[in-house]
């Protein structure tokens, strides 16, 4: 999450990476807030009867946000990984022990996140996938390109075939009956709020077992994200170890093409996916949503990244970019702080507001929280060189104590 912060003549921290990281955190905040506070209005809620305004907001979040921003964060993680390799090479230090400690630190943060705050953690998956990424550090760019295509295309094609199969099977009497039962089961599962109700009724430490069990239930779904995460890590690794990031002004034409095709293809696919949730039964619609994770999300993520980069290059001093960069410099701290505040609002050890707020109210909370994080991050960074958790993670990575003050 943190990009290497040591400034050298050959490599200094680039604000565009912090801007993109802060932008990704804004999208992640919206998704997580909807999941934690507005359970029935979060994706996938297409089988549940909710108010029209919540339904419209849910469709918009699925279309623009779901599976796009954690994917963008994965891309940036890969860039950071490449910079860690370059830093180790410049300093003449062993890379494997350093990155291993970094992944262990991330794993610990993730496990504590699950046990103490929320079961929707992504850090554990990042730590696992980051460990896999170590094996690719010496691969050629050609090999990396092949793996990226395979990791995105193979699951994407398989999901599409499963989707088509659900439609064809419905044409038979036995298949229609079986899938009808599956549709009903899914609808009941999406409407089941028992786990959330337990969290609303439990104290902070009492809820630990609920969070851990819920995470274990979600683990197969979370592990299914590894191909996408690894693909974006590899793209980031490729960009980070090439001169692409350092030569962004010279890459404007390529960025424009990525923006055009990323947004055009991504939004076209997302339109079909959203329409599937409107007109298809639950099982087929859910498979369509999974295609967002494997194909539409990564494509649209690249379009978003290119669009933001081009806008930044035109005017890097816009207040919006400065705000995103401020939050992005403390990405790990702000990510976990978001969970702390949202779960405090939602569950029994705090205000117990889960399932009581409308989608627009949760969206407003997300905006207020993000703006607050901009202000708090700016204040913190005026006095300190790192966010508090970034500092801890950095000390673990290098296995020595750094001064935190400027």
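^ Assign residues to that structure.
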């Amino acid at each position: 999450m943190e990009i290497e912060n040591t400034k050298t003549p050959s490599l200094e921290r680039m604000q565009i990476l912090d801007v993109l990281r802060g932008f990704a955190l804004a999208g992640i905040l919206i998704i997580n807030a909807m999941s934690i506070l507005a359970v029935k209005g979060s994706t996938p809620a297409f089988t549940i009867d909710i108010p029209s305004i919540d339904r419209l907001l849910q469709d918009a979040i699925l279309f623009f946000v779901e599976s796009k921003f954690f994917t963008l964060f994965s891309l940036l993680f890969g860039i950071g990984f490449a910079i860690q390799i370059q830093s180790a090479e410049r300093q003449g230090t062993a890379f494997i022990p350093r990155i291993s400690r970094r992944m262990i630190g991330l794993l610990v943060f993730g496990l504590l996140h699950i046990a103490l705050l929320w079961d929707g953690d992504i850090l554990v998956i990042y730590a696992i996938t980051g460990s896999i990424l170590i094996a690719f550090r010496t691969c050629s760019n050609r090999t990396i390109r092949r793996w990226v295509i395979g990791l995105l295309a193979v699951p994407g094609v398989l999901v599409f075939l499963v989707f088509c199969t659900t439609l064809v099977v419905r044409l038979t009497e036995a298949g229609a009956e079986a899938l009808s039962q599956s549709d009903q089961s899914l609808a009941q599962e999406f409407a089941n709020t028992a786990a959330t109700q337990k969290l609303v009724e439990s104290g902070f430490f009492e809820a630990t077992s609920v969070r851990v069990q819920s995470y274990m239930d979600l683990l197969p779904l979370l592990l299914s994200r590894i191909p996408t995460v690894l693909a974006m890590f590899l793209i980031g690794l490729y960009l980070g170890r090439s001169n692409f990031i350092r030569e962004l002004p010279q890459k404007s034409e390529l960025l424009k093409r990525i923006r055009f095709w990323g947004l055009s293809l991504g939004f076209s696919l997302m339109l079909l996916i959203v329409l599937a949730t409107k007109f298809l039964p639950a099982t087929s619609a859910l498979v369509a949503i999974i295609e967002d994770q494997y194909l539409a999300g990564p494509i649209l993520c690249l379009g978003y990244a290119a669009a933001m980069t081009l806008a930044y290059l035109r005017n890097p001093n816009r207040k919006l970019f400065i705000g995103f960069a401020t939050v992005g410099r403390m990405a790990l701290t702000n990510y976990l702080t978001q969970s702390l505040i949202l779960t405090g609002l939602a569950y029994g050890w705090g205000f117990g507001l889960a399932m009581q707020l409308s989608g627009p109210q949760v969206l407003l909370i997300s905006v207020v929280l993000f703006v607050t994080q901009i202000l708090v991050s700016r204040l913190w960074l005026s006095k300190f060189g790192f966010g508090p958790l970034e500092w801890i993670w950095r000390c673990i990575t290098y296995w020595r104590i750094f001064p935190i003050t400027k």
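The two ends are 21 Å apart (CA to CA).
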